[in-house]
Design goal:
The chain is mainly α. The chain has seven helices and two strands.
């Protein structure tokens, strides 16, 4: 496994700007293609779904949807149940990205840029919920508390720093596992009989699933902190 973020070619954007196509970009495209393919399959199969499931495929899909709806309702209350669709998609993106190392890919989530983009998305959703649902309380927290206008820059910095916290936590865990697996695969052949498989089970599957779950749980907690606290 190569844990370097290798660049393959660059697309000129004008002047000195270039879009470098590297392992992260290609990996993200692959993960996106997998998600789109799954969505198309589910959409086609959806026409044959019954009120009482008659196939294992329908059972799996309904179980996943109900599971994430339950997580969102328990964490954010039923008022925000609509976020279940978003977090289900985010979890799948991170989960497939995290476990892609099993197939010899460099996980897109081993790149801080990928995680930071998703972290910023969480912050924007958090601010959106504060403006939409909390309204006057949101602006009071931003401009008036704990002292009028004095702490406004710190309040904004505190909100946007959450994106750094989210992205660095995921980045560190996934990149660390990627580097360790790369070093293990570089060992002599007699040390690679069963050892890599056990480590891959932990770093790729267990840690990858856990980190995807932690990301969405923290995101829900951050968003909920800006929304009204009624059940």
């Amino acid at each position: 496994m190569n844990f370097d973020n290798q660049g393959y070619f660059a697309i000129p954007l004008g002047g000195d700007l270039r879009l470098i196509i590297n392992d992260t970009v290609i990996g993200t495209w692959i993960v996106g293609a997998v998600l789109i393919t799954l969505a198309i399959i589910v959409r086609i199969k959806f026409k044959n779904f019954k009120e009482v499931p008659e196939s294992n495929f329908q059972n799996v899909i309904e179980t996943l949807v109900e599971f994430f709806d339950g997580i969102v309702v328990s964490s954010m209350s039923r008022k925000y149940a609509g976020f279940g669709n978003w977090f289900f998609g985010v979890f799948l993106f991170f989960w497939i990205s995290n476990i892609s190392g099993i197939f010899g890919m460099r996980p897109p989530t081993a790149d801080l840029a990928t995680n930071f983009a998703m972290g910023i998305t969480t912050v924007l959703l958090m601010l959106y919920c504060g403006i939409r649902y909390s309204k006057s309380e949101f602006w009071k927290d931003l401009f008036l508390r704990p002292a009028p206008l004095v702490f406004t820059p710190l309040n904004l910095l505190g909100d946007f720093s959450k994106s750094i916290s989210l992205s660095c936590r995921l980045f560190g865990n996934i990149l660390g596992g990627t580097i360790i697996m790369g070093l293990v695969y570089a060992l002599p052949w007699f040390a690679n009989i069963a050892f890599p498989g056990m480590l891959s089970l932990y770093f790729d599957i267990f840690a990858g699933t856990l980190q995807a779950y932690v990301f969405i749980m923290l995101s829900m907690a951050f968003i909920r902190s800006k929304a009204p606290q009624e059940d």
